[in-house]
Amino acid sequence: MNPILRTEGLSRSWGALQAVRSVSFALEAGARHALIGPNGAGKTTFVNLLSGTVPPEAGDVFLDGGPITDLPQHVRVKQGMTRTFQITTLFPGLTVVESVVLAICERKGLGASWWRPVAQRAAEIDEARRTVRDLHLEGEANVATRSLPYGKQRLLEIAVALATRPRVLLLDEPAAGIPVGESSEVFSVLAALPRDVTILFIEHDMNLVFRFAERITVMVEGAVLVEGAPQDIAADARVREVYLGEGGHA
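Given the sequence above, the corresponding structure tokens read:
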């Protein structure tokens, strides 16, 4: 085990609700790791704690062995951890390439002047076009975000995340709201990413989880119920019990 990201005793409550309860977790470098569980299990809160969106009440987060518990979200991005959300958070008036160029300029500390003439941003535009091509968006490169189908918007959100050059990519339901055919495309693109990008993703579609994940963590009521390889999770009686009434998944 070579964890690039880990937690020790991570906890967070919202009033009387203990959303995450003393979770200790390790994400191996290069992993394709799924985080699953019924609604209200604490999955998104846990990812929010990892990314710095909300602070923990107890416990610690470590990236590459170094503590990042008290670092703000933008500093964690600079250190190599980026996340996407259940709902896309893109700029509707920007084109696909402009959105990725903006992310690249922000990474390089050029965010305040990203809009300068094209001739002054040739390197950033070249990089953006490579990223757009890798995400199968070259046909929409000059299309405004607001005009993209929802599945393409999710791919663009991932392209923007990749423009930050993350070592750890946190995905909160990347297939949410996408038709089945398009969700498969999103995960096919993710599957093709190089192994120097470690992926932790939340997903409710068990077909996608078992096709893509190499390791799965199941959360219930804010705590880790079980973790293991997909075949072990599929055979676990506790997991089947958790998902009774949840569509018979797993």
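The two ends are 25 Å apart (CA to CA). Try to locate this feature in the token string yourself.
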